[in-house]
Amino acid sequence: MKLQLALDLVNIPDAIKLVKEVEAFIDIVEIGTPIVINEGLHAVKAIKEAFPNLLVLADLKIMDAGGYEVMKASEAGANIITVLGASSDATIKGAVEEARKHGNSILVDMINVQDLEKRAIEIDALGVDYICVHTGYDSQAAGQSPFEELRTVKRVVKNAKTAVAGGIKLSTLPEVIQAKPDLIIIGGGITSQDDKAGVAAEIRQLINQG
Ligand SMILES: O=C([C@H](O)CO)[C@H](O)[C@H](O)COP(=O)(O)O
């Protein structure tokens, strides 16, 4: 199980400062959608240059023009790029094809997909690297969590790795670990804590214990 730190509500200098605090405990840094909106792909480039040994995920949530947008993110230094599960098969196939040219990976974000089981099976056949269940901020605010959806994708996905995101914190991590996803994505559960390094270390320890 790998750990991805999601950075969403920071600018580039604060993102670098934050990653420095926890870099020993994480595998992947996510440049979240809000950062990309604020700073563009420069944020991906800056983080990759500052932390060449960490994998960088660009959370573009691509919905169309899969090949082109994956190309631009790859040129900026991203190792993993996100595409929405609700996008067309053609978009997902284009994204995968382009990612392969750069030795990169595609994570499909299943946020708000209505028939999760059916779409996960379809997407699993398209050769993507990760299928990620995700309860977005707005659904988290309405009291939702991604744990049941994680169990669904773990049951039906046979080829891709599985990932989970959406409000995960230290107290809910054991339930997530029990389902054994390949990738656990945590944003606010680390970034909004006073002792970020301490919490990240505890999270890493729990994940390592599996
Ligand atoms: O993808 C995300 C969200 O849609 C904002 O872009 C977050 O990175 C993801 O939800 C993880 O963050 P937390 O929910 O704070 O753990």
Automatic annotation (TrEMBL):
Gene Ontology MF terms in the entry: hexulose-6-phosphate synthase activity
Pfam families per UniProt: OMPdecase
SMART domains according to UniProt: OMPdecase
Key words, A-Z: Carbohydrate metabolism, Lyase, One-carbon metabolism
Enzyme kind, highest EC tier: lyase
Annotated ranges, domain Orotidine 5'-phosphate decarboxylase: 2-203
InterPro entries: 3-hexulose-6-phosphate_synth (IPR017553), Aldolase_TIM (IPR013785), HPS/KGPDC (IPR041710), OMPdeCOase_dom (IPR001754), RibuloseP-bd_barrel (IPR011060)
Pathway of action: One-carbon metabolism; formaldehyde assimilation via RuMP pathway; D-fructose 6-phosphate from D-ribulose 5-phosphate and formaldehyde: step 1/2
Name of the featured protein: 3-hexulose-6-phosphate synthase
Species assigned in the record: Paenibacillus agricola
Native organism taxonomy: Bacteria, Bacillati, Bacillota, Bacilli, Bacillales
